[in-house]
Amino acid sequence: MGKGTVSADIRKRYPQVWLSVSATTRKPRPGEVDGVHYHFVSGDEFARMVSDHQLLEWAVVHGRNWYGTPRAAVEEQLSRGVPSLLEIDLAGARQVRAAMPEARFIFLAPPSWDELVRRLVGRGTEDEEERERRLATAKVELAAADEFDHVVVNDEVSRATDQIVALMGIRPHD
Q1: I need a labelling partner for 38 at 20 to 30 A (CA). Which of 10, 26, 84, 113 fits?
Q2: Positive/negative CA dihedral, 138, 98, 16, 77
Q3: Domain span holding position 110
Q4: Is residue 41 part of a domain?
Q5: CB 167 within 8 A of CB 106
């Protein structure tokens, strides 16, 4: 019930919002589709994208895999006036803030630390070492929530979705 779940709910309930599709070097999880959930690329391809300045933001996430937002797609949507959402981490948000200071930044927070741990363990897609890496990253991210323009608590997916789209200037569904 994290960023991915809320993004999927936005995609489903608010089709007028364009969601960027990040590039990543990590392997797909069960059910993930290349080009829909992520652009799954090799390390060499990712490095080429970085060197060619094709990414708006990029970073190593959880100390292991590279993630980045393809620049051209974002710029195209914004130039057309399409409401756009990037699902990015703290390092990515800091890079986008530097590149696009006019953007609005929303921090999606868990209802509590215990709930965050429960969700991560319950997902069952990471081993213990990966969970520990993700929890260490989460501590750093939670400490930086005040860098964002808004904080939305993800205690219930549809409520978090409605709050985010309202902050984007879209009237939430009743």
Answers
A1: 113
A2: negative
A3: 3-167
A4: yes
A5: yes
